Amino acid sequence: MNAESIRKLFEQVRQGKLSPYDAVERLRHLPFEDLGFAKVDHHRSLRAGMPEVIFGQGKTPLQVAGIFDRLAKHGGNVLATRTDRRQYAAVKKKLRAAEYRELARAIVLKQDPQIYGKGKIAVVSAGTSDITVAEEAVVTAELMGNRVEHFYDVGVAGIHRLLANREALTKARVVVVCAGMEGALPSVVGGLVGVPVIAVPTSVGYGASFEGLAALLGMLNSCASNVSVVNIDNGFGAGYVASLINRL
Amino acid sequence: MNAESIRKLFEQVRQGKLSPYDAVERLRHLPFEDLGFAKVDHHRSLRAGMPEVIFGQGKTPLQVAGIFDRLAKHGGNVLATRTDRRQYAAVKKKLRAAEYRELARAIVLKQDPQIYGKGKIAVVSAGTSDITVAEEAVVTAELMGNRVEHFYDVGVAGIHRLLANREALTKARVVVVCAGMEGALPSVVGGLVGVPVIAVPTSVGYGASFEGLAALLGMLNSCASNVSVVNIDNGFGAGYVASLINRL
Amino acid sequence: MNAESIRKLFEQVRQGKLSPYDAVERLRHLPFEDLGFAKVDHHRSLRAGMPEVIFGQGKTPLQVAGIFDRLAKHGGNVLATRTDRRQYAAVKKKLRAAEYRELARAIVLKQDPQIYGKGKIAVVSAGTSDITVAEEAVVTAELMGNRVEHFYDVGVAGIHRLLANREALTKARVVVVCAGMEGALPSVVGGLVGVPVIAVPTSVGYGASFEGLAALLGMLNSCASNVSVVNIDNGFGAGYVASLINRL
Amino acid sequence: MNAESIRKLFEQVRQGKLSPYDAVERLRHLPFEDLGFAKVDHHRSLRAGMPEVIFGQGKTPLQVAGIFDRLAKHGGNVLATRTDRRQYAAVKKKLRAAEYRELARAIVLKQDPQIYGKGKIAVVSAGTSDITVAEEAVVTAELMGNRVEHFYDVGVAGIHRLLANREALTKARVVVVCAGMEGALPSVVGGLVGVPVIAVPTSVGYGASFEGLAALLGMLNSCASNVSVVNIDNGFGAGYVASLINRL
Amino acid sequence: MNAESIRKLFEQVRQGKLSPYDAVERLRHLPFEDLGFAKVDHHRSLRAGMPEVIFGQGKTPLQVAGIFDRLAKHGGNVLATRTDRRQYAAVKKKLRAAEYRELARAIVLKQDPQIYGKGKIAVVSAGTSDITVAEEAVVTAELMGNRVEHFYDVGVAGIHRLLANREALTKARVVVVCAGMEGALPSVVGGLVGVPVIAVPTSVGYGASFEGLAALLGMLNSCASNVSVVNIDNGFGAGYVASLINRL
Amino acid sequence: MNAESIRKLFEQVRQGKLSPYDAVERLRHLPFEDLGFAKVDHHRSLRAGMPEVIFGQGKTPLQVAGIFDRLAKHGGNVLATRTDRRQYAAVKKKLRAAEYRELARAIVLKQDPQIYGKGKIAVVSAGTSDITVAEEAVVTAELMGNRVEHFYDVGVAGIHRLLANREALTKARVVVVCAGMEGALPSVVGGLVGVPVIAVPTSVGYGASFEGLAALLGMLNSCASNVSVVNIDNGFGAGYVASLINRL
Amino acid sequence: MNAESIRKLFEQVRQGKLSPYDAVERLRHLPFEDLGFAKVDHHRSLRAGMPEVIFGQGKTPLQVAGIFDRLAKHGGNVLATRTDRRQYAAVKKKLRAAEYRELARAIVLKQDPQIYGKGKIAVVSAGTSDITVAEEAVVTAELMGNRVEHFYDVGVAGIHRLLANREALTKARVVVVCAGMEGALPSVVGGLVGVPVIAVPTSVGYGASFEGLAALLGMLNSCASNVSVVNIDNGFGAGYVASLINRL
Amino acid sequence: MNAESIRKLFEQVRQGKLSPYDAVERLRHLPFEDLGFAKVDHHRSLRAGMPEVIFGQGKTPLQVAGIFDRLAKHGGNVLATRTDRRQYAAVKKKLRAAEYRELARAIVLKQDPQIYGKGKIAVVSAGTSDITVAEEAVVTAELMGNRVEHFYDVGVAGIHRLLANREALTKARVVVVCAGMEGALPSVVGGLVGVPVIAVPTSVGYGASFEGLAALLGMLNSCASNVSVVNIDNGFGAGYVASLINRL
């Protein structure tokens, strides 16, 4: 029931064609969710600057390109995660402005250059193999209008590399930390900064890392109180949450 | 926004105190969920014969008695699962008609004697230790207005005991099967009958039964196509689903 | 012991060649299971309208085509699940009427057009990636003679899309809900409808979804009492159970 | 090496008692961490309004009281989580102003009444059994100087109860959602609001809930992008992270 | 359909009251399982010397004594596993001849002194803590009419203790090996003897033994080909299987 | 130290070239395990009729052929498990008599036709997909000199197919049962026969079968006391253990 | 066969009472392991300074006291781990010199004051709750004759506390690190020192720590190459391994 | 802040250009970690003889060759683990002296021939399939300047093969033991030697070995006190830890 149809209902009541009692009954049997739709759209306005997002994995190049093209028409930024070069080629054909961020395995189209984030987001990764996930977080945060600084290869077994960046880290408004293997880095970072830390376990490792389970459990049990966790390899989610926080 | 307040809105429109346009706006900013509430209540009427249910575990005798008493006022049947004798004593003080079903660890109050189920529900259990769970299913189904027949101690290692009851089993409209340890019984029963089988893994067993996990996995992998599964020890859920099916 | 050989036994008794006492003894030592066979066949008659089913995965195109052809001779509907186009090509050569349902990855042959289900089955899926599993349920239910309506891409993170279909959902006699990732959809649907909900966890997701385990556990722990669960990605099983319920 | 001792070093250099070269050498062999200490303390100033926290579980009443008393001298708020009435009695003897928050199982001493949070924190819980965890989050957030609003018993199986509070929910700057069993609530809430959601799995449930594992996995796989997760039953951590976010 | 009712059927045929054809039909619709019962009883005769067994855990002293008393009337040996002294006291009251085997936590009544086993059964245990399980195997095997020799505290970290008994071990016809922690003993014993080895993982250990899971997995992966495994702590099962083998 | 070298030691003592005291010392420092070797060889004689076995998986065709050729020179039967046609081609080139058992994925060379087993071994499998594992057990048992009978596709969901073979099953001296999915078959077979049952879980299944884990747990928790279990897909081990039992 | 009996054998040969050939035969049939025993005893001499150890958990006070008393007679140090005050009281009655190390839950008797370790062992623990495990390592190392230094409450979330002790840590010859929760400490310590690190996961934590599993997995996946791991809560094992290393 | 810049600071103080007080302030705000760097470098000198290491898996041949070349310039030994022949070819082009150790899948460049280890390291493996992991340990230990002896194919099911090498084993200063399947070997070896044993679980096995989990759990639960464990298949880590121990 959109606004128009409800208005008609009221119109009928005003014209005496329908008694208030009957109107209520009719209203009761209409799908109230349409009203909800309206509210949701209204609420959508809060989402200005949010990129449109496609999960590329398992989709054909044609499918990715098709969806990408359609979403691009909304005028905002568009992000396709977990993509490969073949999917990018298909998108590129339709949208010349689309770029491929190799490290992040992401296709991006930046149509909205505005900065929405109030401060800086720091993205930290433990090892060189975690960079793919970290870059996904970086790209996501950038597309959502944030200034992002990254600190790579600062794992806990060489703690001085991390400490050497403490000053810079403490200037961030929110920190994303990606780590595989034992997943210890968020705890250490969490102890160094006074802001929220979003921890991303990565599937980097072998044997008893169990595809990221070890890192995940480690992060959930962090002794630092300012750490919360997203799914294994979910760089996008971390960048998204960090962006929301940075907008506040 | 209950029916009353919406009616007033229409009344104001009818009296010309409010334009249809403004009425829509006002409606838009009211909590539309109240309307939802109304619908839900309406929808509730479909739930005639459904018992009010209390999960007794972890509640004090006083808490159970208090909730039980309040729910009893609705006039329907009341069921408290996972209770003990002390909780029953507290309920009994308030409601003399409440009974304790020892085997099922359930307190019941039967205020609605009507039969809602169209056929019979069969409840089958593998071993004597599974009876607690089976009885919870039985009590639930009975309180929901079904005729229930039970077949206990018919585990797969003595298949003839089960076969001896096949005739009777095939007469049920839906079958609940409770089994711990390897959880094989639902598969065998599923092969014998042509109706839906609700499987309930029980935590009966030790060692590699891992508190019912072995039975649960066994049932989920049943080679019989007519088997669906509820949570470990969830006799209530099985009785509930079976009752819904039997009402159709 | 088939009917023929038993008849001979009775004949001998009638002719006085065998005393009733000796006949009983002889009967006792015959394999009674043959008798069971007979009963099972009889019992089979209850299964009118059940499709013959082939699990295609791991079978060569020739094997699938061979079995399919043989089963088709029974005159009923035939369904091969988890198949690919190459397997379909092999079947098609033998049975021109066979169709390939791409989304469901199923080969179907409809020889029995009768409607056996009393009402409608609703099939709901959370995301676009769950559609393969949902379609398997749809195809299964259709081949078993049911009217099926589907509601796709109505995941819980956009609850209004689900609510917009509530009216339609509540008209189904049984609902199948497919969801991967957190598997929350069956709980929400379960709360909206008053009929049995068959939940199908899908392996859609990554990281801590552990190939559908997260969704499976979520569904087993559903706070809605009318939910029962089948194996991960088991769209066929869900469609089968739903069909049995809809026939009652 | 505190500031004082370093100053002396410089003093010696100024007075010509020590060559710059030797001073560097001496500095090199001093524990540089003391310097770090200083910085950390400085950095601590960022932590104004942070409560001192004690994890009460496994500690004797005397231990809790002793630590509590010592921390109280810092002048800020003090919070002891996972405590019981006996521990509270011991604390009460030393600090008459200490209160016991029964539902949260927390002992609190409020010495700093200042509000540090910029907006409101909403704490949502699915069932009545999750309230203990939710209250821990509430108490933590309050002690950290936030305005907190709670919404209890709004589980997904009765979605209208949640929707009825959507308006209020969307006014929060950050939302904490506690849920056991299938842990579906954060996904639904995440879809309704545009701010960060901190999800807390609780150990409420039985059988295949595996002490909160099912809820944990569900939340990690949330289809809502604004959800991050803390450890099972970690109401404190959720309240802490939410407070940090609300201060930004 | 018991023998009597079938005889009547034949009688009717003999008297010409029923045609053979009709008799077959009537037979077909009788519950054939009764016949199965008879066969099972016959088959039971193969089970001479098998003890009657009660799983004591979770049963009240009265229940154990009641069942024990009833089973004792069959004249064979009776075994109640996982019992305590209170249960024994109750049994003792009814059956003065019942003994309590403390180490095995078993109540036994030996009424059949016959030896059924052809050779000797060796029962080996790794540590002193595994003895409870080992003794349950010993008692079971003895009650089933076997000569049993035990070798305790011969764990793999002191391999010489095991080797010192190799000569004796190789004389057994079947070997039961109980071990907790890493569960390595069956592999070593399996390499030393040329007969079947029944491995019993025990829940002895802590931490990453996960209640016997480590030992169980170890035994299932034994590099010795003559090892098969029973459930964690299932001394009874191992003694039972070993007895069956020793009877061959 | 072989027998020869020890004899020389004694000879030296007899000839007075070495004092008994010095001889003991020298003996002490010789590798006593050589003595053990001798014993092992002696003990080996117990292993007459045991086939030489190669685990083919992960080995190149050349490696398999090389080892196969060398072992064939011992004169006994040779068995290579988990092989493919390419490995067989390589073996065939060296040993024309070698055969490929397709279903069992095994290369066999039968050089010892003797029957060592005293009775018959029955090999039972639940579904057509379990046949690979079952055939591995069959081939192993045959190569070890046993008469083997197999019963395929007798899963528990069609219990009559199994019962129709009960008579034949009860004639076996030991039964191997292979089953994937819920792994229920060994329990049912165990209840039908009075001899040892070796259960082999197979990795057949999908979703919550977790590569055979469900079947494995089911079998370990069997309610039939005569069941012991080997590793997932370990048809060889089951055939081996069954052969040892059948030789007794 | 001890040295004495072998000497007699040689004596008989020397005296011509036994031919060398017969002597070999007789030797062959003697339990050669006795010889092994001798060797083991010899080898034992390498174990000078090793304490006798009792695992107290699950033993009665009388049992602990009995074993303790017997082992004390060997003259070396005696250690009983996982004990309580009641067990200590029983030991104390027999051995006045026995002490109770409360924090380590250990009963110790120091009879051998010698220092065997060449350098210092450092024992580090993350939180105050890990101290029980750390102290068990300390006591073990001390009883094995080592100088031990401990560093408690230096968890990774307050990295400066750890760094403040780096100088001291780098002076140890081997470091034991105990940590629960995320188990990150060994990685950080491993990066700071150039010597072997023995990591001990502790069961400290809750929720997704899964009784120490999270810490265990974290340590096994350590990005520091000098870390090896012992069982959860196995302070004794860590102290033992560290002592062996420190003796080299 | 390197030594040079600090010296300048002191110089300014000496020249009276800066007051000691201001110098402290300035020092306080410099990144103290630079100082830490210096210390770390100093500490690095302890690491003489440590090889530079590259984890080859997942890197392109060009990447491996590039890093390898750069590290080779440091003058020490270089080791690339988990590499294949294509990666080796790329390295070989740049560094003719680089060798490929096929069994260990390692590329090595030996530029430092010095022996740093004080004694011998023994590397033991259970089966032929574990050799890859064992060889990785061997290569690592050799490149770190150790004498290494290996003992392959000495699994516990043929214990005499292991015992035949006991004498040699006891001469090692530290022992690395690699084993898959049940992982029992370290326990047996641990009982035979008096030195530290580093256990490496391998992913060799199938079914319930769960990619090395069974072996890992077995080793963590070893009944031998001198065993510590590294990650599954982590031959490098074991060789590294053993080398550190052997240098002491």
What oligomeric state do these chains adopt? homooctamer
Which overall shape of chain A is indicated by the principal axes computed on the Cα atoms?
globular
Average predicted local confidence, pLDDT of chain A: 86
User: Biggest interface in this structure?
Assistant: E-F, 36 and 36 residues
Account of the 3D structure:
The structure is a homooctamer of 248-residue chains. Chain A has 248 residues and is of the alpha/beta class. The first copy, chain A, contains eleven helices and nine strands. In chain A, the strands form two sheets. A five-stranded parallel β-sheet of chain A has the order 6-5-7-8-9, with helices on both faces. In chain A, a hairpin with a 4-residue loop joins strand 3 and strand 4. In chain A, helix 6 packs parallel to helix 11. The longest helix of chain A has 13 residues. Chain A is globular and about 80 Å long. About 7% of the residues of chain A have low confidence. At the A-G interface, helix 9 and helix 10 of A face helix 9 and helix 10 of G.
Task: Tag the structure with descriptive keywords.
11 helices; five-stranded parallel β-sheet; homooctamer; 248 residues; alpha/beta; 9 strands
